[in-house]
Task: structure prediction
Amino acid sequence: MPNATPRSDPFFHPVSGFELPRFAGVPTFMRLPYLPPEHDRRAEVEIGLIGVPWDSGTTNRPGPRHGPRQLRDASTMIRAQHPTTGQRPFETAACADLGDVGPNPADIPDSMARITAFYDAVHAQGIRPLTAGGDHLTSLPILRALAKDGPLGMVHFDSHTDLFHSYFNGQMYTHGTPFRRAVEEGLLDPRRIIQIGLRGTMYDTEDRDFAAANGIRLVLIEEFFARGLADVMAEAREIVGTRPTYVSYDIDFVDPTFAPGTGTPEVGGPNSLQALQVCRELHGLDIVGADLVEVSPPFDQSGGTAFLGVSIMFELLCAMLADADG
Result:
């Protein structure tokens, strides 16, 4: 771990709304310091918040490329203390905004290579990333960087499995295929994957058949509500265990009544409180990285979806630091 002393170092603390109004200043994630790669204090960072403004994997309604910018703006409303656990994550670890990965919007392979290279450098510095996407294909190049030492487990909140083989006559890289590729590439251990909240009409059962054949646990929304959140999340913790785990959170896990700003909404999902509570049940896991993806500002210019998104990111941050915070 870095030898920083963030508890007593105000450099890594967010700017308080009592010091500078929330509508003033240049927005960064949660009003944290912005540290580009050349910054002399970047090596001290323990949790890095990163934007990936890219949606070339989208197959229907684009827009998540604009997500990180709106999420940063909405995140000025995030304060220092968790309302129920009392956690103060910014006093527990050195957190910073590491900026955006610059994608190539005309070239999917090149963009993925750029994303992996960015996260390779972050991972080499011992920084755990918390990412704002971007569409869900974003997760694949991140996993290529984080899983170099062996396959990871994954807790995945989503309406969709993202386990399809291909789209549109053999296109292998879309936001519907990242976790199929991640399993095939040995980045994820399929028997340590649980996908929660699945629902909506289907093309066919190809994705679910792949899950069944490889031991991936699928929790449909009907089971989620029938068993209850706490029971499902207890199973999730059991499945991933104590080994390194990635958390991927698609905003369309949440019912579109509460999160309309996304490209592929599905009705019948959790409400906004349940969207936060599932993250609180992640405490105690060895989370090596997490992402919040598919926020699409063109479909919710009010910013409500983005504010829910950054509230989820704060919950994920607290879960990543739960053991350290006691």
User: Anything to note?
Assistant: The radius of gyration is 18 Å. The mean pLDDT is 95. The CA atoms of residues 172 and 238 lie 31 Å apart. The longest strand covers residues 188-198.
